[in-house]
Design brief:
- It is a single chain.
- This protein has 8 helices and 16 strands.
- The termini are far apart.
Length: 289
């Protein structure tokens, strides 16, 4: 007994050391609760204690959206949802991967750092005036879109693109964007080029962006389309989701319907919905020379 206390005090040559490896796993988990998921994964590499704490269900339960069971319903069938016995960490990891909707023309996923739901709606899931007439529009394959194609406008009098989505978003505030590009991007000899032969008419009148929701929210924004050769995320507006377990219908559009002049040379990639304040640099404002 005396030798034990001497060792604790460092007497008789005893020099015991304590470190993070001696921290109780429950205490380590309490620390992880205050970190974001990417930081949790980094600390899991520190030692055995943090690795065990980083797998605790209650840690990842706090990071998952309230309606994660609904979101997993797009991955599993009804029977699978009832029998869902995945670790919460594995559920989080699966939801961070793109999940297809509408025959692959829509995707949603969790952004890894904060666990917010993001969504992308391809041009083929949008209602585009004149899209069936190849004199005006055509779908162009490209590696610059997550859907591997964009809708390209050569020339038209009435430009209007309308989209709609109904979904149970987790409670919070969301921003909606159209991703547009003036000029037709392509590759020649492995180098990216942009053809601007058809770009005209966008400096005469501004494009009008609109958003409305099934619970009465509305937003309107206007701007001139410029910056040829650049993918630009045009902010349509924000909307608020108050209840995670109730679907909200969001309708959005971009239009330039002044028929006194034609406009053309525009690529419509997709619409994006992000948690307000989220920025993904690889998607926003990509400039090419």
């Amino acid at each position: 007994m005396g030798a034990f206390w001497s060792a604790v005090r460092g007497e008789e040559g005893g020099s015991p050391e304590t470190g993070l490896g001696d921290l109780p796993e429950l205490c380590a988990a309490a620390v992880l609760l205050n970190l974001d998921p990417t930081e949790i994964c980094q600390l899991a590499k520190l030692n055995r204690v943090f690795r065990g704490a980083a797998s605790a269900d209650f840690v990842w339960q706090a990071k998952l959206p309230d309606n994660y069971s609904y979101l997993m319903g797009f991955v599993l069938d009804e029977k699978g949802r009832k029998e869902m016995r995945f670790r919460k960490k594995d559920i989080y990891a699966r939801l961070c991967q793109p999940i297809n909707l509408d025959d692959g023309n829509k995707e949603f996923w969790l952004e890894k750092r904060r666990g917010g739901v993001c969504m992308a709606i391809a041009s083929k899931a949008l209602v585009i005036t004149g899209i069936d007439d190849r004199r005006y529009w055509s779908y162009v394959p490209t590696g610059e879109s997550r859907f591997q194609y964009v809708a390209y406008l050569q020339q038209i009098w009435w430009f209007e693109v309308v989209g709609e989505v109904e979904f149970c978003f987790p409670a919070g505030t969301y921003s909606l964007y159209f991703r547009l590009h003036l000029g037709r991007p392509s590759k020649r000899f492995g180098r990216r080029i942009c053809t601007s032969d058809h770009v005209h008419g966008w400096d005469v009148k501004p494009a009008r962006f609109q958003l409305s929701t099934s619970d009465g929210q509305q937003a309107v924004n206007q701007c001139y389309l410029d910056q040829p050769g650049t993918w630009v995320m045009h902010h349509v507006g924000d909307f608020v989701v108050r209840k995670s377990n109730q679907p909200i219908k969001v309708k959005f559009s971009v239009a330039q319907i002044d028929c006194t002049h034609t406009k053309g040379g525009l690529c419509v990639d997709s619409a994006f919905i992000y948690p307000k304040g989220y920025r993904e640099e690889s998607v926003f404002n990509t400039r090419w020379c």
